[in-house]
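YM 10:42: Carbohydrate kinase PfkB domain-containing protein sequence, as discussed on the call
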Amino acid sequence: GCNREFSSEDVDYDLVARSRLFHFGYPTLMDRFFAEGGGELEKMFARAAQTGAATSLDLTIPDPDSPSGKADWREILERALPHVDVFVPSAEEILATMAPEEYGRIASNAAGGDMIDAVPEGLLRELGGRLLDCGVKVLLIKAGHRGAYLRTGDVAALNAKGFELPDENWSNREMWAPAFALDREKVQNASGAGDAAVAGFLAAMLDGTTVEAAAKCAMLAGRDNLYGADALAGLPDWQGMAGELLSERAPASDLRLSTAFEFCEDTGVWNAK
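YM 10:58: structure's back
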């Protein structure tokens, strides 16, 4: 089907050139993008970047019993990421692709529990540094009920592509955004929560919000997604989300971090010292 045959040649680059952002998800499910060392993924992102649009990438966990699970995703991503501005994997996805040995160890130790609780904060920070060294400008690592780890480099290149991010606020930041409280009686569906978080984050970036507001939009969209019967039904419109940001605050005490981070009462996020 489509996942087997889709390639870089199927992208309308003229349309990409008329856009501010090119977002691509799940090369881990698409045969052409992990074959032969990932050359097709690198080619597509390089061509998209050449149009002048910003680029973003999301993943899934490669199935260990499939050809994708046997591909060298570390090599594939290191080829593609110099052309990726915004990278938005989950903690499990980035470990499975960039640190598969650690992923296997942590998954084994967490057997019977939630793996996300066993992922060391320091490991995500180490991977964050490596990913920025690869060329990523904005990294959001989704971490379920632990919130999200966010790290940025210089965002001037994004602003040159049509974004209007407050440079001093966005550039060279490192923080954790705590998850918002969940009303379990309202939960209907968990399909697409990660995608909703990514959409909230990218929409906030395109709107030119502060980095703290963008992180919280991601957390709100991911949480609100759970309240709908499908992937979209629980989500408010943009004005509704802005209202939620003003009226609701994530509980800082629910996120256990080392002394390398300190909570900011004004913004509601944990900043690296």
